[in-house]
Amino acid sequence: MSDIFTKAxxxxxxxxxxxxxxxxxxxxGATIPVIDPASEAQIGAIAAGGATEVDAAVTAARKTFxxxxxxxxxxxxxERLLLKLADLVEAQQDEIAAIETIDNGMPYGISKxxxxxxxxSSIRYHAGWPRRLTGETVPxxxxxxxxxxxxxxxxxxxxxxxxxxxxxxxxxxxxxxxxAAGCSVVLKPAELAPMSGxxxxxxxxxxxxxxxxxxxxxxxxxxxxxxxxxxxxxxxxSFTGSTATGKAILRESVTDLKRISLELGGxxxxxxxxxxDLAKAIPAVAMGIFGNSGQVCAAGSRLFLHEAIFDRFxxxxxxxxxxxxxxxxxxxxxxxxxxxxxPQRDKVMSYIEAGRKEGATLVAGGDAPSGAGFFVxxxxxxxxxxxxxxxxxxxxxxxxxxxxxxxxxxxxxxxxANDSIYGLSAYVxxxxxxxxxALAKKLRSGSVKINGSGMEFALPFGGFRQSGVGRxxxxxxxxxxxxxxxxxxxx
Length: 491
What we know:
By secondary structure, the chain is of the alpha/beta class.
């Protein structure tokens, strides 16, 4: 396996420019070092793009969109190129997964399955949409003879701003949805984990997409990201990241009413009833918060346990957690890699300290391994309550807050789970179908998963309240890159 990572490091060390109008352009001026969070070693550097590079990328995307070379390409043509891109990603999946591991830190097996495997699935799923992005025929009630119908026209130039926690998977999902709709795009990878996005640009060129359809500009969010969001040539912004940044993007978009999709933070609830299958629920709940070292917007970070199984569940959960190996994602058998950066590790550790001071009881973890790397051991608190910061605020790290419930009043239970500024996901474990369906209706979350977890690209994904605006995936995710047009024809 070491050969895979040697090749990946050679590839990341070679990236130094932006991908604009179908060609690579060397960056001018400053660069941004890219750090392997497991070793703290530099694996490369990216160009610190800004307004000049963003303008060139938006101009290229606009030119291609207006030429109709992509937006008016027959549906079969867009489908064919997307499927070819998926094939190329699949052929290079080992290398891409290795790049993601040294760039983001996630364990290689998870990187290959989650980051690259789901990316391939999302591209192939969206490849089918150009043929199916239909409007509807509408019965008319106005006097006369009329034929009424709607169409979904591509919005134009879309800015795709992706986070560092699952960069390749999220990039491919956004990109393939926008391309399926007929948009041209400008992608801004996260500066903390940009390398797989640059590798994707190479595969886009190899697949034969028209020049200017896909453009990639690297740089800091405060510079390249801000220039992209404020550019008047952008019609649509699709952003995944923090709620604070999402609010700033929303405020900026008001100037020219850009269309917006925001997938933001979460503080998701997991609810386990006494009748749940604990053999399945315990490992699923653990990995639902500790997977990717807790750096998942939909992580089940608040656990509600029925009192009848509380002690037994906690005992099993702690035992499972203590077996999770923490270490570099390049090593076999590692379940949890590092956090993305030193500031992120320090932030998580500050929340753990706050939990102690606020009176929560630590039953697992609570510390960081010594040595190089930005690691935090998986941490479980019991005796928590909604007033605590570890319960109310998104930590984005491997920290679980556990609470007990005894009543079977589903309204009260749902109210406790809904007591959050967020509403992204919820998880329910029960064999009682009445409880399952009732809670699915009562929980104020964009996704509710019963007796399991995972991502299905045919289902829309997004959140209530401060978890975001709009939906990704499914029909809704593709239509988010379109405008609906109404047509009336008199005859």
